[in-house]
Amino acid sequence: MDPQTHNPPAAGLAAAPDAHEHSGDKYQSTFITKYIFSQDHKMIARQYLITGIVWAVIGALMSVIFRLQLGFPEEDYAWLRPILGKWIIVNSDGIGSIAPDFYYAMVTLHGTIMIFFVLTGSLSGTFSNLLIPLQVGARDMASPFMNMLSYWLFLLSTLVMGASLFVSTGGFGGGWTHYPPLSALPQAMSGSGAGMTLWIVSIMLFIASVLLGGINYIATILNMRTKGMSLWRMPLTTWSFFVTAIIGLLSFPVLLAALALLTFDRSMGTSFFLSEIFIGGQPLDHIGGSAILYQHLFWFLGHPEVYIVILPAMGIVSEVLAVHSRKPIFGYKAMVYSIMSIGFLSFLVWAHHMFMSGMNPFIGNFFVVATLIIAVPSAVKVFNWIATLFQGKISFTTPMLFSIGFVSMFISGGLTGIFLGNSAIDIQLHDTYFVVAHFHIIMGVAAFFGTFAGVYHWFPKMFGRFMNETLGKIHFWGTMIGAYIIFWPMHYLGMAGVPRRYYRFDSFQAFGQFDSINQLITIATIITFGLQVLFILNFFFSIWKGRKVTSLNPWKANTLEWTTPITPGHGNWEGPIPEVHRWAYDYSTKGAIEDYVPQHHPVERQGAH
């Protein structure tokens, strides 16, 4: 028996008044209140998930479009004109090409959509909403109305961002980091006017959504845990959502302040981020600001944002690896402390994105050291995942495959981060395709693998059916191979000095030799996108036609969500909420009847026949 099973509940953190008794359905609902303006955390999780899927398809399609431009810049794209309209320029010979302004808007919106809407809003919104009340033993979130409001603000922010692409001047094309002066001066470039204004409004709405959700997650975990659910008995998924919410609550207001100051510069003649700018040969009439100040404010959110994205995926993977290897998670307390360490250290490394900004080298050394230190808790998690798999009774289910794939991506992407965290090497690699390769593997693909693992694993709890395993495994192997073909060659492009965010490279003699690599990456991108369509078809088909779940606990897991009915109603448990007696990872325990012992089983039952 692990010593953690004997920890008493935390003092002063008793369960909510309705935590244990529940008779009848006190949550009467109509179609609108059940499916649209729902206050049920499970339905809100589904809303976040499906909204995220829609925007992931849109964001991925954008990447396909600009990869076509990079891989085959001389091809005729007139066939896209009926879809993209004026953004496809047709010359006198009838040959169509992608407009440069549209290309840069695609690059900008792709990054914004994927980082904020899909990997932050949808990932945390889906699994934090679904799992926190179920795993801590609560009827719902601390504030169901606030939870509903957070989703609708999220949806509204995505629609405003989408609308920015359709204004007459087009969407903002200055990159997802929206540095001034391109973002601070409406006349700076096409898209810096109305497109950038809508971008700012959208992100402000998104931040409000994140803050409402984060407050709710923290309050639910601290105040609504069932009897016996001490902090040291919480699953690692809940721990990761908890620390993620704290990081978001501390970092996103900084970006909100930066956007407010940016709005003042754009509209009110202030100069927080502008100084000594000439427009059309005429000097700007207000000076004294600093564009570097904006970078500091942005990256104070921007680097914790990396962990807001990856920590939930880490928590999901930790749970899935333990369940499908039938082993206790290795080093539970070390895993929790590493999550806390990552959360703390994420606020001390932001300026490693700014080594080329003219930073004092001595200050830069601090951020180099902090960046290397944050690799330590990440390495602890990797070694513990590998130790969990070692000699386990591994079932290579689809969620397990994606979890193992996550570990692979996290290792390979993390190792390249050591290069970029070194200020001397970063001078050569900054703003090259090496950076694109690094953060797409560790922040993009790895986070998506964690998301896919979670979707396949908890799909039976969300919809009462299974997704198709054969299609799931095709999805995994195709995506795994495709992702490495797409992003691994980019490291070599970056080491050769190929810069990112360029419209085309065929006019550069030094970079013309890489045409074949760009073509390979583009073809792999199209094929990999097609495999995500396969996932979407599997997902929506399985909601209505998938194999039905016939047992409460199909994966034979230990956490409390598998003690609810197969399709739980609003309130989760029909009777009293189970009391917790042990930690979440009693797998293959010596003397037990089966190879798992759920958290609500009393300790004295262990080994009983």
UniProtKB/TrEMBL annotation:
Membrane topology: Multi-pass membrane protein
Keyword Acetylation annotated: no
Pfam families attached to this UniProt entry: COX1
Protein's GO biological process: aerobic respiration; electron transport coupled proton transport; respiratory electron transport chain
Predominant cellular place of this UniProt entry's protein: membrane
Protein's cellular compartments: Membrane
Source organism, top-level taxon: Bacteria
UniProt cross-references to InterPro entries, sorted A to Z: Cyt_c_oxase-like_su1_dom, Cyt_c_oxase-like_su1_sf, Cyt_C_Oxase_1, Cyt_c_Oxase_su1_BS
Annotated keywords: Electron transport, Heme, Iron, Membrane, Metal-binding, Respiratory chain, Transmembrane, Transmembrane helix, Transport
Record region (Disordered): 1-22
Biased amino acid composition, Low complexity: 8-17
GO cellular component: membrane
Family, per entry: Belongs to the heme-copper respiratory oxidase family.
Entry protein name: Cytochrome c oxidase subunit I
Biological source species: Phaeodactylibacter luteus
